[in-house]
Amino acid sequence: MDVLMLSRLQFAMATMFHFIFVPLTLGLSILVAIMETMYVRTKKDIYLRMTKFWGKLFVINFVLGIVTGITLEFQFGTNWSRYSEYVGDIFGSLLAVEATVAFFLESTFLAAWIFGWKKLSPKMHAVSIWIVAIASNISAIWIILANGWMQNPVGYAMRNGRAELENFTEVISNSFAWGQFFHNAFGAFVVAGFFIMGISAYHLLRKNEVEFFNKSFKMGLIAAFIFSILVAAQGHNHAQDVAVKQPAKLAAMESLWDTAEHGAPMYLLTMPDEKNETNKIEFLGIPGGLSFLAFNSFDAPVKGLKEWPKEERPPVTVTFLSFRLMVGLGTLFPLLCIWGWVNRKKLVDNPLYLRIMLLSIPLPYIAMWAGWAVAEVGRQPWIVYGMMKTTDAVSPIATSQVAFSFIALTTLYTLLGAAELFLLAKFARKGPEPEKA
Q1: Could you tell me the residue ranges of all domains in the chain?
Q2: CB atoms < 10 A from the CB of 253, how many?
Q3: What are the two backbone dihedrals, phi and then psi, of residue 301, each rounded to the nearest 5 degrees?
Q4: What mean pLDDT is predicted for residues 413-431?
Q5: How far apart are CA 152 and CA 249, in angstroms?
Q6: Which of 65, 268, 367, 404 would you label with 281, given CA atoms 20 to 30 Å apart?
């Protein structure tokens, strides 16, 4: 493998691993803040115990997420220096705001929350976790604004052979980036909801702390159901933005090879054949379905992949299958939530459902990974859409250097992943602290 492929694999591995921690941080922080607010308002001990139990799992996830995020950003200098030189004036400014404002805010107040149980008043302690939750989501905004600029570059001017910031307001109001943010933020609540439901299901199967985990399950259920609907609706809106701004990605998502001038069909079952530029299977087509979903018109034309040279097409199979996986799981989530809502008053009497929810903990993570695969793989061959190709962005370094860092980071992340699973499993199985006598 050459430097480019190794750098791609290393960044993909680091990004996907880091993203294990991100959505749970964003969603669970808000839910823990709600639990503590309920304690402050009602003074009921059960909400304090819920805050401490789920808060402990949140802290474990948060700390390990920080470590993987720091090593991830270093790669822009080590593996992608030409990219950093070309667009660093814009990309770097967004990451700098995230680091100097949001990251330090959330880290500072998380420390106050962890060590301030006996030093802060209940209200100020609850304020601390709210600041952590809000700052974590603000941090995500700035990072996704940076990624959104790569997807839809705006507010720049070309000077001296590089992109320089021209209009900061245009960059931070990039509609494509905000579509990405809300799609991810809504998905984060689904991750957190299923995380809470899955762990609660584990204890309910054992009839351990039934009242505690019934309340926890219902909170996760409500969050997961509401946001599984919102993420689907917002995802549709974002896909329409993709259709306008990244038409090649849309064609890859649907494996559409030939341009449809008077309405593109949507097939419920398709199997791409990239080598022969066709589909092996096209089953149950809905006339004009893709045109309607993309442009709200059954007759709208949709460009096929053959409109672009082969070297400017995204990898079709990966993009297509990732999109289908994301949509399929996204359809499953509200159905599981409805099943849970119907049985919410007798959860302990439904062991089959509880086992399914325990096993479903990884599914929202997989859906979000698939979504990011669509976003990033579907953007190829561009690292900055329409401006800079990924082949031109890699650092001029030796293959052996990237191979060494790839092996080293893979080893490090494997150890961190094992530590995460061990600690989360240990404290999740242990359950909450006993009630006060």
Answers
A1: 3-259+303-430
A2: 25
A3: -70, 145
A4: 87
A5: 13
A6: 367
